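Supplementary Methods, section 5.1.

A reviewer requested that the exact input to the structure prediction be made available. We therefore reproduce it here, unchanged from the version used in the analyses.
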Amino acid sequence: MKEEILELLSDQTYTRRKIQELAEHFHMTETQDYVAFIKLINEMEDEGLIIRSRINDYYLINQLQYYKGVLELNKRGFGFVKVDEDREFYIHDSNMKDALHNDTVLIEKIKSHGQREEGRIVRVLKRGKLRYVGEVKRGRKDYIVKTDDQKFDKPIIVDAAHMHGAMPGHKVVVEIKTFKPQIKGDIIKIIGHRNDPGIDILSIVHAHDVDIEFPKEVYEQIEGISDEIDPSDIENRVDLRNELIVTIDGDDAKDLDDAISLKKLDNGHYQLGVHIADVSYYVTEGSPLDKEAIKRGTSIYLVDRVIPMLPHKLSNGICSLNPNTDRYTISCIMEIDKHGEVVNHDILPTVIHSSYRMTYNNVNKILDGDQKLQQEYAPAVPLFFLMQDLATLLRKVRDERGAIDFDVDEAKVLVDQKGKPTDVVLRKRGASDKIIEEFMLKANETVAQHFKWMDLPFIYRVHEQPKVKKLQQFVNIVKPLGYTIKGSLEHVYPNELNAIIHASKGTDEHVIVSTLLLRCMQKARYDAQCLGHFGLADEYYTHFTSPIRRYPDLLGHRLIRTFLFKQDYKQTVHFEEVIPELAEQSSYREKEAVDIEREVTDMKMAEYMSEHIGEEFEGMISSITSFGFFVELPNTIDGLVHITDLTDDYYHYDEKQMVLVGERTGRIFKLSDKVKVRVVACDKKERTIDFEVVGMESRKKKSKIVKINDRKVKTKRTKKGKINRSHRKTRKHR
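The structure derived from this sequence is encoded token-by-token as follows.
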């Protein structure tokens, strides 16, 4: 009936809008029906679907200039409510009512300022968050929890009966039970004392509602899983245990989910085998393991730990393709011609016996001519050079197709045993890294194309064309640097954007151009529809190669098992129903994982730089805003030079050109400018670093004490600003 009510009220000519009149229209006049109808109308009003006018007539919310959206709160008190893709309302702090960050709210439009619309919050429809991480402190009567969330500055009162053993100084998870007249909550988890090693990282993890431990039901299920493969299933598989197969991963990797075989055929073609851990054999649909994997969505890789999607018994044990051990796999075996095209392929259930557990570093050294390592791994050395030949061919084909090579540096924070950062270094990508990347991309593409042409339910990795508005902003910024996009922005092709990146290579602004273009891109996501991958210039794409650490890959394997191996087409309708929801959940959990990884990295970078306050560094201007500019150091650490610290002049911000221009001197700060800066402040909690330009006379500033690892550091107070570091994406999230 909800849909019928909404359809009726959408008719602007319909006038009988009072509750009794609506009940009569739907023949809900008997007492029992009438009561149920009133409850339904109240429910729709609470959901923000309809609203009552001053004379108690009911309308759709937008018919009376009301809108529904999610509040994005700024830590300075104001906020924005996005009501659709291209429309948002500014909310002054005086019009917030009792709404909090991420709440779903009903707003009323009150006025417009040029292109900016302003509204006021009428009521909160749904709280965005009930659980917060914070530190326990003593209040006047009861205890309070001061949250870590910079956008939630209200203390949460906790009475003694709901402390559950927490004491002042403890970092805790608190759940809000009441919002009025005071915000009160219960402590549901003690994370640890604020000064304990690792508690800073765990606080961020718990703030995103991520569980560290697996539930009891999962541990009970994995007790029945053997540490060795069940030999009874070998007869159902293609036996590849006599083939030369290797894994190539990072030095410290323990979840080895992909292995490679490669040979030259008599016809001159390559036969590439990408063998992926058969996780779906152990994680069956609807089991406790499966439900927990859906909830987690992905493994989370932090500076000092991994929060796995699957328990270690699977991720590091029976599913990991460890050397000299029989393991079950699903293999995509491709015949590739001299033009880099897959002319034939098979997707098979297999059993393998990996010959070598190789690392990127060692394979790089072998390819560079390290004779000691070449002797140690002599039987596999020809394989590595053959891999390099094929990867070069595949990369050439990808470049010709127009795939975008963002080539953005990635940083790694090194920490000691207590979690204290000791260095920030760039991740080096050698030849073997690129080899594995090419092979994984080709396997993902081949599997996606196979299912697309079979017209069966599947989960795809999609990356849609960038929005015209963002591309126009990109063009405005890079045009002064000498770059432009040819043709229409509405129908831009990946090769045109890739041409800009290639043109900038070898120049000072290359990193800036790559980063700015990456920010223009829409976020890649999972979908039941095969919509292509813009960045890879690929019509077909999925994630097939990492089922140990990504749920979509595991789901893809389950679909391969169901439709290709078992040929169970009765499951078609079932998977058509569940895949869209699982794709949405996986996309959400991936975003959360990226946010957690970024927040931890930024926090540790701020902590690291706190040891360098007063020191000078040379960097490059990576972003410019109305409140200053950000300077990125060679190791990717960036900090803010606030506009109030540009003391040699009064600077105006030119948004279109993205420059700061001095009023009197005409001095210009623009993207890619090299500047020498001094570290003046770091805040680990806010994850910010403040610089000042060397050579400018400092304004008189108040001292600020910043606590780092329980040690007080005296710094200069500057205004803080944050940049959205969305460009810090790793290749594993492609």
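The first strand starts at residue 50 and ends at 52. These observations are discussed further in the main text.
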